[in-house]
Specification:
Layout: H1 2-18, E1 27-33, H2 39-51, E2 54-60, H3 62-70, E3 77-79, H4 84-92, E4 101-106, E5 108-112, E6 133-136, H5 142-153, E7 164-167, H6 170-178, E8 184-188, E9 199-201, E10 210-216, H7 223-234, H8 236-244
Parallel strand pairs: 1-2, 1-3, 6-7, 6-8
Antiparallel strand pairs: 3-10, 4-10, 5-8, 5-9
Helix pairs in contact: 2-7, 3-4
């Protein structure tokens, strides 16, 4: 009888393994600003290897993701496209105290759709052939705020109002241009490098630096995994990957 029971137990173990019943790795759920979409193609697998976790990424505008974290959404890490949102959540008790870390500085560029003469400067946005200009919503997207600052500093913000198309986030603004729904977009450098798209870098003097930060959520289901993931992103290895997507180091 004992031999039969042992045989049954062994068979059950083999069947469990064969059917995928082995213990699964923990998951880290990351709420990430949409300018990180390209970078996470590389960052995701690297975090999985370094932290021995599976990574799930939810992309969106920083302001909308902030609201979800504040409401208790089950994210382990919040990666914003600015410093203000993670720090405000830390002050409210929604981000783990002391966990907020800067991970890079983003840049904005002018992206012109195929088929028209490339726009080389912000002043060119008043050209007669430019019918639609898109930016991310400046009310909740840091890249949209930077675009508005640059357009205002260049003296063309009011002039382009009849042509302005507001996207929910910077990734959507990029897709508007790529899909031909807008002639020009003020978008993130990180979203035009892979695959490479013709663009014009906007000088830093026109807008405040886009310093990007992240923190571990107090509602995290896997806070240890979240700390590991954020630590990797802010590490030298993480910054090297981010540099490939145009992110500059934080001074």
């Amino acid at each position: 009888m004992r031999a039969a029971l042992a045989l049954c137990a062994a068979l059950a173990t083999l069947l469990a393994v064969a059917c995928g019943g082995e213990e699964r790795r923990a998951t880290v759920n990351i709420a990430a600003a949409s300018d990180l979409a390209g970078a996470f193609v590389v960052l995701g697998p690297e975090i999985e290897a370094a932290c021995q976790v599976d990574v799930e990424v939810t992309l969106g505008s920083s302001g909308q993701l902030r609201d979800q974290v504040r409401a208790g959404a089950p994210f382990d890490v919040f990666l914003s496209a600015d410093r203000a949102f993670p720090r405000s959540l830390e002050g409210e008790g929604a981000i783990e105290a002391g966990s907020v870390r800067d991970y890079g500085v983003g840049r904005i560029v002018i992206l012109t759709r195929e088929g028209i003469e490339p726009v080389q400067s912000l002043a060119d946005l008043t050209r007669a052939d430019i019918r639609h200009v898109t930016i991310a919503n400046p009310d909740h997207a840091p890249y949209g705020r930077a675009a508005r600052e640059a357009l205002s500093a260049a003296g063309v913000w009011e002039a382009i109002q009849p042509r302005l198309v507001v996207a929910e986030n910077i990734r959507q603004a990029t897709e508007y241009v790529r899909g031909g729904n807008a002639d020009v977009g003020i978008v993130a450098l990180s979203l035009v490098l892979d695959p490479p798209l013709p663009h014009t870098l906007i000088e830093q003097q026109w807008y405040e630096p886009i310093v990007q930060s992240g923190g571990v959520s107090m509602y995290a289901g896997n806070p240890a995994g979240g700390r590991c993931a954020l630590g990797f992103i802010a590490s030298e290895s993480g910054r090297t990957i981010l540099a490939r997507y145009g992110f500059e180091p934080v001074e």
